[in-house]
């Protein structure tokens, strides 16, 4: 070490999440590694020293420091990780709002050919450039909210051509934007209208044509399936995820979002890296996830926006030993918001998580849920210097003062990208 590229000093409260080799659950979700009067030193985009300011200055003593930032006593956390989004899609669905207010449910709107299917029509009609421009705007919003790594699913194309179009947008954004994107293929998001009479032919298409092509082109790391009443059955989901595993994809599943179907049980059986939604997950399903080490990705903005009376039982999941992550589920239907900070508030007020559990859920546990915990999700020597500074001096202030953006500065791999 012959220099320091960046020294961030005078940090009032630093949340490090140190010591997070495994996803956290139970009381470990409350251990956020808080350090007062702290500092972080960065070289080549990675952290080379972190601790109290005294400790860090002792480690880097005598070295030239290229840039220094005075954190002015602020709260600082690892870059936030949003592990479940449908970032790339055409159009929007505000026309569903009056239907919802009249009492139409998500599955009713979907059964009438609206919902996901209307976004599929808009996505098929959109050019790649148009999808890129729209997703870029959302990604910028996510970054302003403090997200430095975001997972993005396909699933609004539902033809080979249109799924690849969505996935290429994710790939291009990942190459050009400071936010790192992790790509998931979700061709099994819905049975497209043209396969309505023969859903198993669509399952065959996903398994035998789409999955191998996505793999060949290296366009996605994970495969996800919407296992839901009227969408993909448990057996169809099992077949698709088996095929994906054979090809080397990591496995994710939208499980038990609305109807208790046995999706959480399937996630346990297959050893998925994560199961998402879980609002209607059974006790047996949660136990199966716990045994297999599946991470629960809970999406409180979705249950809020769907006006569901029930929420995912994140509190019991944590008490039962399931690691919980939180995410926006950003999509044009069930969760039209990029705001990970709103999710923090809903995580506290609707899922009854503490601010410490919430920050764990959107940093290190979210990083584990997308297979990135070796490089991000905590502020530790050797990890990327993805760092957020807030206009706040303690953690609880973030979920407490809601509906506004608390972010002051975002640093991505040692570079200031929002200030
Ligand atoms: O995660 N549940 C399935 N997929 C999305 C919603 C997609 C849509 O309504 O466009 C979700 O909630
Ligand atoms: Fe989703």
Automatic annotation (TrEMBL):
GO terms for cellular component: cytoplasm. Gene3D superfamilies: Metal-dependent hydrolases (3.20.20.140), Urease, subunit C, domain 1 (2.30.40.10). Binds 1 zinc or iron ion per subunit. Pathway: Amino-acid degradation; L-histidine degradation into L-glutamate; N-formimidoyl-L-glutamate from L-histidine: step 3/3. It comes from the Bacteria. Its cofactor is Zn(2+); Fe(3+). Keywords: Cytoplasm, Histidine metabolism, Hydrolase, Iron, Metal-binding, Zinc. It is found in: Cytoplasm. It catalyses: 4-imidazolone-5-propanoate + H2O = N-formimidoyl-L-glutamate. 4-imidazolone-5-propanoate binds at residues 93, 156, 189, 257, 334. GO terms for biological process: L-histidine catabolic process to glutamate and formamide; L-histidine catabolic process to glutamate and formate. Signal peptide: none annotated. InterPro entries: Amidohydro-rel, HutI, Metal-dep_hydrolase_composite, Metal_Hydrolase. CDD domains: Imidazolone-5PH. PANTHER family: IMIDAZOLONEPROPIONASE, IMIDAZOLONEPROPIONASE-RELATED. Catalyzes the hydrolytic cleavage of the carbon-nitrogen bond in imidazolone-5-propanoate to yield N-formimidoyl-L-glutamate. It is the third step in the universal histidine degradation pathway. This is Imidazolonepropionase. The lineage of its organism: Bacteria, Bacillati, Bacillota, Bacilli, Bacillales.
